[in-house]
Amino acid sequence: MKVTILCASPRTDGNSRLMAESLRQGAVGSGHDVGLVELHAVMNGLLRDCRTCRRPDGRCSIEDGFADLVHDHVVPADAVVYATPLYWYGMAASLKNFFDRLVCYVSASYPRRGEVAKGLVGQRTGLLLASEESYLTAGLGVIFQLQEITRYMHQEFVGAVAGVGNQRGEVAFDPADPLAAAERLGAEMFTRHYSDYWLDSERPNTVWAAPHGCRREMGPYGDV
């Protein structure tokens, strides 16, 4: 399977990049094809008013590497993982810019819109978040935003790993061992359980198989 990691930190040796390398190691170890893209090296323009800068054929007129990023790395991927530091309790600007500019490639006027939309739907996604704060909900805004984005695109948001550190590489000393967690997420990217139920969803009575010899009876609200 193909995994694309999008790194949003302007530092190529920062903590979020270190977590991304760990995830890549885990995914490669499971036999997957993994590519890593530094977003700040690909994009040099912000989203503009598409009514004034869209070309007559519907293509974006911003001349940088974003189109190649979308068509060569994101659309063909079976999973996309976002690695970002926490800036002002949100994602880094380059990652927000990635999502902002993606709108031009899923709009009805874009000539390859069908190809892009088809490629995005069904992908598995993950998040690697580096912050100097151990405050439990510091990164909740990023997780919530990605959850809403992935649900909009009918993707499966299978996991998030948070690492605490400030100086370059300091995340390696986080007692929670986020590097190992990121490596495990990479290894389990396509096997990790995912569920997102609706009221009318058909679903089994149990999430995990019961241990051998253990009999479980389930009622409408859980174990009985």
Report the CATH topology name.
Rossmann fold
Whole-number count of domains: 1
CATH architecture: 3-Layer(aba) Sandwich
Strand content: 15-25%
The structure class reads alpha/beta
Number of helices in the DSSP assignment: 8
Overall geometry: globular
The radius of gyration computed from the alpha-carbon positions, rounded to a whole number of angstroms, is 19 Å
- The termini sit apart by 40 Å
Can you give the mean pLDDT?
88
Which ranges are low-confidence, i.e. pLDDT below 50, for 5 or more consecutive residues?
none
Largest sheet: 5 strands, parallel
Secondary-structure element string: EHEHHHEHHEHEHEE
Helix content: 25-40%
CATH class: Alpha Beta
Classified in CATH, the superfamily is Flavodoxin domain
**Oligomeric status:** single chain
Question: How many beta-strand runs?
Answer: 7
Strand order of the largest sheet: 2-1-3-4-5
Protein name: Flavodoxin family protein
Domain NADPH-dependent FMN reductase-like: 1-114
Organism: Pseudonocardia acidicola
Keywords: Flavoprotein, FMN
Question: Any overview of this molecule?
Answer:
The chain has 224 residues and is an alpha/beta fold. It has one domain: Rossmann fold (3-Layer(aba) Sandwich). 34% of the residues lie in helices and 18% in strands. The chain contains eight helices and seven strands. It has helices at residues 15-29, 39-42, 50-53, 66-74, 93-106, 113-120, 140-152, 178-187; strands spanning 2-7, 33-38, 79-85, 124-131, 156-164, 218-219, 222-223. It has a five-stranded parallel β-sheet with strand order 2-1-3-4-5, with helices on both faces. A two-stranded antiparallel ribbon has the order 6-7. Helix 1 (15-29) runs parallel beside helix 8 (178-187). The longest helix has 15 residues, at 15-29. The protein starts with a strand and ends with a strand. The model has no long low-confidence stretch (mean pLDDT 88). It comes from Pseudonocardia acidicola. Residues 1-114 form the NADPH-dependent FMN reductase-like domain.
